[in-house]
Write a structure and sequence with these properties.
By secondary structure, the protein is α/β, with parallel strands linked by helices. It has 20 helices and 14 strands. The strands form four sheets. A five-stranded parallel beta sheet has the order 7-6-5-11-12, with helices on both faces. A four-stranded antiparallel beta sheet has the order 1-2-4-3. It has a three-stranded antiparallel beta sheet with strand order 8-9-10. It binds one RNA strand through strand 9, strand 10, helix 11, helix 16 and helix 19.
RNA sequence: GCUCUCGUCGUUCAACGGAUAGGACACCUCCCUCCGAAGGAGGCGAUACAGGUUCAAUUCCUGUCGAGAGCACCA
């Protein structure tokens, strides 16, 4: 479904380190002296999954459902669960028995919290695991065997892709990757409005050379057509005529123009998907970045068939066929106009059927702006009566709209920010920095940074809420931002690179007390699992921001190369690089080598 | 008017009914003879209002005020 004319724009940037206040200066790891030997994984032997399994082990000890979380302050421990004052002591004992030597201490605190602090060995093992598992670090199996279809982006041919589509794309792609990472088979779908009044408007503008320069982009033609449509009855009539002709393909001249416009628009979109860093799903062809491309021209007939074959579900009203949702607390919506044309609602029904016919999914997720929430509920209500088994597999995830601080923007007023201009603005700022950076290819880096800035702003917020765009803030590459994460990553990489050339013989010792950095890092798999479960990439964004902050602190305070515990600190740096790289990749944010 | 969503430092975002409400931007102090200052350390600063439920409420319920979105032939 095409994302409608959102208000426009980008978010501003801020928030980080949200999940807890990690004190930066515990009297940790200051002492010298010999720590225990680092546990080493034995080649070819899979070692116990201390971290990924930790929550499960605690859960098992509890014997019932309870929320296990990272405490608000790591002073309390590495895991915390609230069980109430009566149960606290017995629960603590059960957890002690279950965790054994993995836990340094399990204690009752406050009015019924059980706090669990991992042993030094357990933390070190988690860090070793992070590096050893490489690109698989953080993977889960909570969605193993699931087949998930996810539809997002949904730009309309003949119109421009704007920032709203960018939001849908960033959120959809991140959710797709998160769900894949937890074991599901994921197919990406893009649903596009290649028929309908907006197409007629664009074609109408193009039909008459006096209206518009024939070489103008289709997005411009659409705007022109829309203005004409609203300005005069005769234009409106003519455009309605064209709309019909597009549906029934009765006019060769229009058909030709239509085919060209559709092709040109779609090709343009693919270029943007590539810029956005999507992975090609197919080797060649014009449609490469999604597994499936669904079009309204295909869903319309399917939807019409569904509506017409269920006269008991729909009712005739003023010549139109409608669905009355009042009984379900919804409202009435038109499915077939009095002129006999299918509306968006009917096409959506057809889309549900088309999806189900195309791939046998367990779950179908659709990402749209939240202004479509009520509409979607009506469609879903109708679908439950028409295709009940498909209806129950459908989930709707909504995102807020981008709005300007100066006031509301509207596509009808023509002040929409297109996807390309938005990216270009960020790119211009990023370029200034990139040219002064250590990167070998500043242009490439600038694009990576611009993408990071854009996606971070979109993904950092809980979905469903509007994103307020403050241009100055949006273009600020400091503080809570995508580049902040990238910067932390490249500094760690830089240390590792330098360590390769300056080789020191250091004893393989580890500090007795774990650094906060490692204690934070070991939670990565759990964060990924939760973000996937809740379809909430912002949880991962928050966590990575906190992690980057902790790394920057660690880096500022601790001498790594040439310092105490050099080998262990380098191992930590390696684990951090792996965690940040995997996290950024899951979000669809580029992880540069240098910057 | 009806329905839904939302009101948290000056601004913009966190906090899955639990611990001292956490960041960033802005503002004020500090820190590059030392692995990268797109960085680090510190300071200032908030739950719209009124009730209710609960051992415990930013979170759940009711009301008031305020903001946004949706509400029949657009998508």
């Amino acid at each position: 479904m095409a994302v409608p004319s959102h208000g426009v724009i980008a978010p501003s940037g801020t928030r980080k380190r949200t999940e807890s206040s990690v004190p930066k200066h515990l009297p940790i790891n200051r002492h010298k002296g010999d720590g225990p030997e680092t546990p080493r994984p034995v080649a070819g032997v899979s070692f116990p999954r201390y971290t990924a399994g930790m929550e499960e082990r605690i859960q098992k000890a509890l014997g019932r459902e309870a929320v296990i979380r990272r405490p608000p302050n790591l002073d309390f421990g590495d895991y915390s669960v609230f069980v109430g004052p009566e149960q606290a002591e017995s629960t603590a004992q059960a957890i002690r028995n279950e965790l054994g030597e993995s836990a340094l201490k399990v204690e009752v605190a406050g009015k019924g919290f059980v706090n669990i602090t991992l042993s030094r060995e357990a933390v070190a093992l988690a860090i070793a695991e992070a590096s050893a598992q490489g690109a698989n670090w953080g993977e889960g199996n909570t969605n193993k065997g699931q087949r998930v279809l996810i539809e997002y982006t949904d730009p309309n041919p003949f119109k421009e892709m704007h920032v709203g589509h960018l939001m849908s794309n960033a959120i959809g792609e991140a959710i797709a990757r998160l769900i894949e990472y937890t074991g599901a088979e994921v197919k990406r779908a893009n649903y596009q409005g290649d028929v309908g009044p907006h197409v007629a408007k664009a074609i109408y503008a193009r039909l008459f050379p006096s209206n518009i320069d024939n070489g103008a982009p289709w997005g411009v033609a659409y705007k022109m057509g829309n203005d004409l449509y609203e300005s005069d009855q005769s234009h409106r009539k003519a455009i309605d005529e064209i709309n019909k002709k597009i549906y029934d393909k009765s006019d060769p001249g229009i058909n030709k123009l239509y085919e060209a416009g559709r092709r040109e628009s779609l090709a343009q979109f693919e270029i943007i998907y590539e810029k956005l860093g999507m992975e090609p799903r197919k080797r060649s062809g014009n449609e490469r970045f999604f597994d499936y491309y669904f079009f309204e021209s295909a869903t319309a007939p399917l939807g019409l068939e569904l509506v017409r074959s269920h006269p008991q579900v729909f009712t005739l009203s003023d010549g139109a066929i409608v669905y009355r949702g009042e009984d379900e607390g919804l409202h009435t919506r038109v499915f077939i106009t009095s002129q006999g044309l299918p509306t968006y609602e009917t096409k959506e029904l057809g889309l549900a059927k088309l999806k189900a016919d195309t791939w046998d999914f367990d779950t179908s997720i659709t990402i749209t702006a939240n202004e479509q929430k009520a509409y979607f509920q009506v469609v879903l209500a109708a679908l439950r009566k028409v295709l009940p088994e498909t209806a129950q597999k459908i989930q709707h995830v909504t995102h807020g709209m981008m709005r300007f601080t100066e006031g509301k923007m509207s596509s009808r007023k023509g002040n929409v920010i297109t996807a390309l201009t938005f990216l270009q603005d960020l790119l211009d700022v990023a370029k200034e920095r990139a040219n002064k950076s250590r990167a070998g290819e500043p242009d490439k880096l600038a694009m990576q940074v611009a993408l990071a800035a854009a996606k971070y702003q979109i993904l950092k917020q809980a979905s469903g809420k509007d994103i307020i765009f403050d241009r100055e803030r949006a273009l600020n590459l400091e503080g809570d931002s995508g580049p902040y994460l990238q910067y932390a990553l490249t500094r760690a990489r830089s240390v590792l690179e330098k360590a390769r050339s300056t080789k020191h013989e250091t004893p393989n010792k580890i500090p007795e007390v774990p650094y906060l950095l490692e204690r934070l890092m070991l939670h990565f798999p759990e964060v990924v699992a939760r973000a996937a479960r809740e379809r909430a990439p912002n949880l991962l964004v928050n966590y990575l921001t906190e992690l980057a902050s902790e790394w920057n602190s660690f880096y500022a305070q601790e001498r790594i190369i040439g310092g105490d515990y050099e080998a262990y600190k380098l191992r930590l740096a390696r684990a951090f690089v792996q965690t940040m790289t995997n996290g950024l990749t899951l979000l669809g944010i580029p992880a540069p080598e240098k910057m």
